[in-house]
Design brief:
Elements (H helix, E strand, L loop, with lengths): L1 E10 L2 E11 L4 E5 L6 H8 L7 E6 L2 E2 L4 H6 L1 E4 L11 H11 L7 H11 L15 H13 L5 E5 L7 H14 L4 E6 L2 H7 L2 E6 L2 E7 L8 E6 L3 H9 L4 E10 L2 E8 L2 H14 L4 E7 L3 H16 L2
The structure holds adenosine-5'-triphosphate.
Adenosine-5'-triphosphate binds next to β2 and α1.
Protein name: ABC transporter ATP-binding protein
Family: Belongs to the ABC transporter superfamily.
GO molecular function, one term: ATP binding
């Protein structure tokens, strides 16, 4: 179980992650999706205890990562982006070295290494020098390193980055296999990646969480999209407290106008109540529509920010 509350990270004036909250249950496979620079790696580094948040809390199985970092880290396996490996080491040496860094007792190492090699199907390359391996095999070594201590939570940053189509297929099969025993968070900027392996998606946009949805809900349940000239701080609590509304998130902003998406079981029936509540507060209603949450809309949420970034 991972609980993230009001997590922020600033680099000087740059707000790389802003007030992000989510919970992940045991056994879930969650895709963290967003364009380059959206804040995915920053979140992953904070989840793994390698980067301190500027604000907010992270709990791993109830352990506060700021206070019980070592203990929390023992439950996590991490494949960093462009996983650094020593090219002159063999696969086995590399795994043995990582096992020692993880603090595995020497008598437990051979069994742990054997199991990691089997699960990542690295047997044929076990004695090969890492520098001679294809990128796909090097990624598998990175994954083998991450699972040596049999963590219950696995965090994979761009696991298919730079792989060819056959290697991507293999990595996806490996991810599904790993998910039988661990909770998985996979960062990617590829929508198809999420569709292929994840049950749930978190979309980051400009450092903020723009969408948190189960994939099987996408394309089925329409949402209500309301446009108001109110700040999210004021509008979100009011909107999410309305009868029949499960949650409210900010979609985007154009000047002072903000578009909010409201999750509801029945968007058509909830619409009049939303319109009434907005008018009762004396707010201007600039738009109210039902929106089917299909994959295109999901993708739009991501690409919009890319356009904003491109156009400054
Ligand atoms: N150490 C750092 N110092 C300053 N700025 C940083 C640092 N690390 C990341 N950033 C900036 O923070 C923002 C978020 O970066 P981050 O790497 O978390 O994004 P990302 O979603 O993982 O992107 P990518 O898909 O390119 O890996 C970017 O604007 C990035 O330039």
């Amino acid at each position: 179980m991972i609980e993230v509350r009001h997590l922020s990270r600033h680099y000087g004036a740059l707000k790389a992650v802003q007030d992000v909250s989510f919970s992940i249950d045991t056994g879930e496979i969650v895709g963290l999706l967003g364009h380059n620079g959206a804040g995915k790696t920053t979140i992953m580094k904070m989840l793994t205890g390698y980067l301190e948040p500027s604000a907010g809390t992270i709990r791993i199985d109830g352990l506060d990562i700021a206070e019980q970092r070592r203990e929390a880290q023992r439950r996590i396996g991490y494949l960093p982006e462009n996983c650094p490996l020593y090219p002159e080491m063999t696969v086995l040496d590399s795994l043995d070295y990582q096992a020692s860094l993880l603090g595995l007792a020497p008598d437990r190492r051979p069994a742990a290494i054997r199991r990691a090699v089997e699960r990542t199907e690295l047997g044929a390359k076990a004695t090969a020098a890492i520098g001679t391996l294809s990128r796909g095999y090097r990624q598998r070594v990175g994954v083998a390193q991450a699972i040596l201590h049999e963590p219950r939570i696995l965090i994979l940053d761009e696991p298919t980055n730079g792989l060819d189509p056959a290697q991507i297929q293999h990595m996806r099969a490996l991810v599904r296999e790993l998910a039988r025993e661990a909770t998985l968070i996979i960062s990617t900027h590829i929508l198809q990646e999420v569709e292929a392996v994840c049950g749930r998606v978190l979309i980051m946009r400009g450092g903020q969480l723009a969408l948190d949805s189960r994939l099987d809900a996408i394309g089925r349940r329409p949402r209500l999209v309301v446009t108001l000239d109110r700040d999210p701080d004021e509008a979100l609590p009011a909107l999410s407290a309305l009868d029949g509304i499960g949650s409210a998130v900010l979609l985007d902003q154009d000047g002072t106008r903000h578009r909010f998406a409201l999750e509801t079981d029945d968007a058509q029936s909830a619409a009049p109540g939303v319109a009434r509540a907005v008018c009762e507060r004396g707010w201007s209603l600039h738009g109210l529509e039902t929106e089917r949450q299909d994959l295109e809309a999901l993708f739009g949420a991501v690409t919009l920010e890319r356009m904003e970034a491109t156009h400054g």
